[in-house]
Amino acid sequence: MTSNIQTYRQYPRYKVSVLSPSNEKILPNNNATTPSDINLMSSSSSSSSKPNILPWPTIFWIALGILIFLALVIVVVVPIAVLANKAISTICPTTSITTTVTASSLPAQCSNYTTITDDTRSPDYTVSSSCDDTIFSTTPMWVRFTGSSGTLLASCPIDTGRCGADAPGWYSGVHPSLAGSVTSGFVCYNFDGDLCYWTSWILVTNCNGFYVYYLYAPPACILRYCTI
Hints:
By secondary structure, this protein is an alpha+beta fold. The chain has helices spanning 35-48, 56-85; strands spanning 17-19, 24-26, 114-117, 141-146, 167-171, 182-191, 194-206, 211-215, 223-225.
């Protein structure tokens, strides 16, 4: 019996590759390319080519943080910069005088005081400087200020070089509102960037229409009392 034997020729196997925009996959010699391999390579190449984009919640919180920072800069930094460049006001509030008693019941200093009329004590005066130690001494005296420069001690900080002084003096206390009453406080002298570089303790009396001040000589020659 004769058998028919067919001879098969073995052909060499070649590497099969599937190209994508970003990578190349080489299949081993003993494997064939299948549809699943092609799909796997396609999905891999697609995912690797996508740009890295932050999720929207992260973007939202970053934007919110930037807005809060800018708001803090506007609210905090800007006012500080404005105040730093702003000159000290030379317009102080005046104090109303309450008249509730008769002149006969006022304290003795309301009729026994020294009157000082000096236009150079105004904050508007910037021509030259002088000393207060020629008028006042270490022994205090009751003083009433009169004239166009004002009748009250300045109640707010005054710029240096005003009131005829290198270091102008201003009253940091409270004027008494009741006629015949007396209050105490400190006069501050603005100098070298310090609104209270020097201080002097004083008394103030409400004399039913005007004030009198119990004043000492300032601590140095370049200091003077300012009036408004």
